[in-house]
Amino acid sequence: MTTDTVSVTASEIAPVAIDRVALTVRDIDLIGDFYQRILGLDRLSGSGEELILGQDGRALVELRRDTAARAYPHAAGLFHTAFLLPHRDDLGRWLRHAHAQKVRMSGASDHMVSEALYLRDPEGNGIEIYADRPRATWLHDGDHVVMETLPLDLASLRRAEGDWTGAPEGTVIGHVHLQVGAIPEARAFYAGELGFDITAEIPQASFFSTGGYHHHLATNTWNSAGAGTRPKGATGLAELVLDATDTAAIRTGLSVDDPWGNRIRVA
């Protein structure tokens, strides 16, 4: 399969895309340093109680400090935030950077539509760093995009020329995976109420997008089957902000919780 570089706009040209993710964290200095040093995000603003990080002036991650917050690994909430890099070579450069920084990786996969590396921040929030394959190479089964979890060619990635010098221009949050309690209710909310298209379904997970992207959102029960409402005072996801460039695609100005208390806001 081709490994040509691809523009990041495959995610952003959709009527609704990811704007930013807000996280509740206990140690804002530790987590802020991680996202700057390991992911290469810029500090855009901060007050001690919150910190905004992004790239080229665009906010991508908002950290909100709560020293009393607790982690609930099997509760509804964030599974991972996926940072989409503009080109495959950027992913290779980041891989070498992560190795030099002794980052502990939690996975690496070829999803056919993309190539992805996985890790966690110091408070356990899941992170994916990925690059899309050219959209023309994506396979479809009817209305669904074909995605698999295959071994990733790490040796090929490492051969990318140049050095990692921080998140490259065009870095965005391409998609977000959420932990939920049940998939039928997730489909009813994200497809039925919010109006996303269902682009793929695998055991215990559904994938959603607009504009034909492989997915902007995913919900799964791999760690959270049967979970109820998200506990108050939990670390992790505080708010997921969506960017609606086409106001006919989704209700703008909306701020609503999904059935498990994951806060979704449409800018």
3D structure, described in words:
The chain is α+β, with helices and mostly antiparallel strands and about 270 residues long. It has one domain (about 10-265): 2,3-Dihydroxybiphenyl 1,2-Dioxygenase, domain 1, CATH 3.10.180.10. It has helices at about 10, 30-35, 90-100, 155-160, 185-195; strands spanning about 15-25, 40-45, 50-55, 60-65, 75-85, 105-110, 115-120, 125-130, 140, 145, 170-180, 195-200, 205-210, 215-220, 235-245, 255, 265. A hairpin with a 2-residue loop joins β12 (about 195-200) and β13 (about 205-210). The protein starts with 8 loop residues before the first helix and ends with a strand. Mean pLDDT is about 95; it is low at about 1-10.
Q: Uncertain spans, ≥5 residues at pLDDT below 50?
A: 1-8
| Strands ordered across the widest β-sheet | 6-7-8-5-11-14-13-12
- In terms of DSSP E residues, the strand content is 35-45%
Radius of gyration: 17 Å
**Dominant shape:** globular
Q: Spell out the helices and strands N to C.
A: HEHEEEEHEEEEEHEHEEEEEE
From the 3D structure, determine the CATH topology: 2,3-Dihydroxybiphenyl 1,2-Dioxygenase, domain 1
CATH architecture tag: Roll
Q: What is the number of strand segments?
A: 17
At the first level of CATH, the class is Alpha Beta
Total of helices: 5
CATH superfamily: 2,3-Dihydroxybiphenyl 1,2-Dioxygenase, domain 1
Query: What is the distance, rounded to the nearest whole angstrom, between the alpha carbons of the first and last residues?
Result: 37 Å
The structural class is alpha+beta
Largest sheet: 8 strands, mixed
What's the rounded overall pLDDT mean? 93
> Helical amount among residues, as a percent range?
10-25%
Organism: Rhodovulum kholense
GO molecular function, one term: dioxygenase activity
Domain VOC: 17-132
Protein name: Catechol 2,3-dioxygenase
